[in-house]
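User: quick one, fold this
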Amino acid sequence: MFSVTNLMHRPGSMETIDEVVPAPADLGNTLIGVPEGSDIDLNVRLESVVDGILVTGETTVDVHGECSLCLDPIDFEMSATIQELFVFEKAPEGGPEDEVDEQYAVDGDSIDLEPALRDAVILQLPFQPVCSDTCQGLCSECGVRLEDNPGHHHEVLDPRWSALAGLLAADTEN
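Assistant:
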């Protein structure tokens, strides 16, 4: 929560926030995300406008996860842009539900940047993270890492022909 007391109903006034804050829980998905409690570098500008407080800026986070192909760990730094309007008064009930749910609001004399930050960061995370563009993943039959064994393969026999293979084996015994 950040105080906006000096900006309330004073269009044209502005403040900046340049802080390092701890990451909230569940900032990501099962494969990749921002570890809880890790540093989030927040650099935003709060501008008072007629309808509310416009928050514009950038955040930098350290992302940790695993490759969706080979399950190796992935760590990198990522930036996300934030631009959200925190309205002084939410749209009246009975209006379109989408508009009411998607609005951020000033709560008393402060704003909670966590939901806007969460939206900005999660939308920037890769849907299927990979450790490298050339990652070949794991063998679907035995789980061997294909990058370490480039010639690895399994002979796949069609079970419908197994009876004929038995006849061929009986014929070679005679």
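User: anything notable?
Assistant: The CA atoms of residues 18 and 134 lie 38 Å apart.
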